Amino acid sequence: MTKDRIASSNDFSRRNFLQVAGLGGMALAGIPALAACAGDATISGAAASAGAGPMLMDHLIANVAAFDSTDRAFKLSAKALQCAHTFTSHDGDMQKAFSQELLFPSLNVKGVHSYLVADAALDRYTKVLADAKIAHSNLSNRLPWFAPNDPKFKGYFIGNVGGPFAEEAYIITKLLLERGGGKGQAILLGGPKGGLSETARRFGVNLALKEFPDVKVVANAYTDWDTTKAQTQLAALLPTYPDVKFVVALNDGVALGALAALNAARNTTALVCGMDGDPAFLQRMQKEERIVATSAGLIAFSGVLAAVRLYDFLNGVKFHPLEVFIDTDSVIVDTPEAAAELHKITGPDAPLLWDATKMSRHLQGDKWILPHQCLVSNPTNFAWGDKPGTNPTPRPKNFSWPDPYQAALDKGDLDVVNADWQKRFVDPYASVRAKAKTKEGALGTFKRIGLI
Known about the structure:
Blueprint: E1 55-60, H1 65-80, E2 84-89, H2 94-101, E3 109-114, H3 122-131, E4 135-139, E5 157-162, H4 165-179, E6 184-190, H5 196-209, E7 215-222, H6 227-237, E8 246-249, H7 252-264, E9 271-273, H8 279-285, E10 294-296, H9 299-314, E11 325-328, E12 331-333, H10 336-346, H11 356-359, H12 361-364, E13 374-376, H13 403-411, H14 413-424, H15 430-435, H16 445-448
Parallel strand pairs: 1-2, 1-3, 3-4, 4-5, 5-11, 6-7, 6-8, 8-9
Antiparallel strand pairs: 10-12, 11-13
Helix pairs in contact: 1-9, 4-5, 6-7, 8-10
């Protein structure tokens, strides 16, 4: 890994982790906070210091394209909201992540946006932050039968942001197999074994494979979302399966590793897919016909959403009890032209597509917007529960949701919140959809086909 970075563009190495100083920023005017919905999430002393906005920490993994995009978006959004901001990498090592978070209070961190490699680490990680009165927004990890608004987190865990991982994988896999005529050998390259997004995407892939009985999965490998590992794994498999027709990669970084292995083996016929809409993959997609599609969940937007939600929370906004499980849509990119357009508007040289200040309830009152399709999800409906799902873990004995969460479900507030969010949606991807063959996003696919 390269050095960790501080989001103000100064180097932030492991050696100087404790030496952060001079955090800048201007305090915002005292605009009255919007009490958006009922809830008990409150915090005092939001500013990191007099004359400075609160310090927001991005705690991800360095040298992963998707997280680079996320951090850039988080950093620019925090800056727009006049917050101090910083980044550090745990390099996928959860013991390192636990050690680092113990230092956050000494850095005056008030809000953390994280991605944890091990889903099971989420409970311990969040409890440490909550005990330190640090607000927490997490990316992807969702433990079965686990609530961010559990009372033990004292209102500081403001939620998990995920995506329609299974649905996008279902769509992308179908596009890949259809392009190849629905026959032939396939190799599946996954991510970290047991991870939520990996498990969900694998569910979607397998669901699509059921519709193509003449496609045979001949090999499977886990790559931990590591491009080099993906290249090595596929290179080791290709001599045994030289006639492989489909390489199903569960994210774009893995797909780039697969392409490197295929090109090194002089295999010019295998078709490849990716998922995530990473800039480097979008560029390759414009040049290599063998790349069929990717699903642009735009993890970068998750960085914007996290920065805005942390900022609003620290300024007294009270979220609805159901706003703890949020799913963001994935735009389907299935032509070189659509890839070029998405890269044009979301690439590293483009201005940030999403305006954090317009998304803020603290700044906008009831006029805040959502520039990306989002839904408040019901984890009992698909992720767990009685219907077919991506992680069918039985309900533990004596389990119950927190009272405010269960009361909101019972009142039918899930539909109310989602209807409100839909009214606030402003689509920035019209130009991408116009150049793609698949016009609808992934979110809601399983409902449309009658699976849930």
